[in-house]
Amino acid sequence: MRFKNRLFWIAAFIAFFVDQLTKYWVVQTFSLGETLPLLPGVFHFTYVTNTGAAFSLFSGKVEWLRWLSLGVSLLLIGLALFGPILHRWDQLGYGLILGGAMGNGIDRFALGYVVDFLDFRLINFAVFNMADSFISIGIVCLLIASLQKPPTPNIRSR
User: Fold this and answer.
1) Comparing C-alpha atoms, which of 58, 129, 126, 69 is closest to residue 97?
2) Is 119 helix (H, G, I), strand (E, B) or coil?
3) pLDDT tens across 31-87, in order?
4) Angle at Cα 68 formed by Cα 64 and Cα 69, nearest 5°?
5) 8 Å CB contact between 139 and 98
6) 117: part of which helix (H) or strand (E)?
7) Cα 18 versus chain centre, distance
């Protein structure tokens, strides 16, 4: 049996697995609030929890965010299963978004918060995680896909 949109499923699985593995490592290795400077003043691993969305947006809104994560995940799974065969960049983009949404969604349902640890201090950016990164990369992939599609002719009827 051959999977339709195979790259979608591979990207989703890898993104989900890497996200959950790195979060598990952080929780097992660090105390809450502990930081490890990898490049002092530039990039640290800092274990924090986040009840908001990506990059700490909508902090404290975990209840509706957990359902949003579930809805996005189900929509993307439905697209891959029942929709058309997607182009490569679309498969990669949607797969990465699914993996990230599932990773953060699992955290929200199981823990009530998301584990964050990637801390770019040089630009004073919010602490985030791999799921957030995969969602952002997935959006870039979809932008690339949209730029590669030929424009549809604009036919006006008289």
Assistant:
1) 69
2) strand
3) 999 999 999 999 999 999 988 655 455 555 556 677 888 888 999 999 999 999 999
4) 120
5) no
6) strand 114-120
7) 11
A 10 A CB-CB count for 94 gives: 26
Q: How far is CA 61 from CA 54, 65, 110, 119, in A?
A: 12, 6, 15, 22
DSSP state letter for 156: -
Contact 18, 96 (CB under 8 A): no
- Total-model pTM: 0.85
Element at 66 (helix H, strand E): helix 62-82
Handedness of CA 141, 144, 148, 149 (dihedral sign): positive
**Token representation of residue 91:** 């498969």
* Residue 130: C-alpha distances to residues 100, 115, 152 (Å): 7, 10, 36
Q: List residues with catalytic annotation.
A: 116, 132
Angstrom CA distances, 65 to 23, 108, 136, stand at 19, 8, 17
